[in-house]
Amino acid sequence: MDPAAADPLGFDDPAGLIDDARRWYRVRAEGIIDPPEFLGRTLRIFLGAELDSGGGRLELVPAIPAMWKSLAVRRLRVHRTLVDVEVRRRAEWVTVRLAVMFGPPIAVRLSLGEDQAVARITVDEIPLQGDAAIFTASGEHEVTMYLGRPGSQDQTWTERR
Q1: Which of 15, 86, 110, 123 could pair with 97 in a Cys bridge, judged by C-beta atoms 3.0 to 4.6 Å apart?
Q2: Of 106, 42, 48, nearest to 77 (Cα)?
Q3: What Cα–Cα distance (Å) separates residue 6 from each residue in 1, 12, 36, 145?
């Protein structure tokens, strides 16, 4: 699919969104996207947030810029549920805190995408298999994704544990 065809305004990248936000004034100029559309695109770019239809699963693939230490989104509506999401990037891992603030539990799939190798994943300190965390969120959860190739874990870390 041609990226220009998917987004004729050219705002599918962080630089385009930031440029558009800089051009906002109290009275909007022509050719600038609406604030709700801007926020939706921001969530898709930085959180990789996608909802499948019919009240199903929330998929998150966070991709915050390397210069940022963290990103927090408060009161994200996922069908009938409100969720707080906080992503923190470190050199060796990425931590995602997810809290259901209101509404029924939701199914979540969390990964770092194809360009990030994940050695191991824990959800609430429980190790999971694979390169994605799939769980039902109710209450507060912490997902830690350790970067690196699977099987390349530090032996001293496993011995200390």
Answers
A1: 86
A2: 106
A3: 8, 9, 18, 31
Q: Which pLDDT score, from 0 to 100, does residue 155 have?
A: 38
For the stretch 35-86, pLDDT in tens is: 777 777 878 888 888 877 665 788 899 988 878 889 999 998 888 889 999 9
Token match 């966070």: residue?
A: 62
Residue spans per domain, the chain: 1-46, 47-160
Q: Which of the four CATH numbers 3.30.70, 2.30.30, 2.60.420, 1.10.155 does domain 47-160 have?
A: 2.60.420
Tokens of 3: 């990226």
Residue 99's beta-bridge partner residues?
84, 140
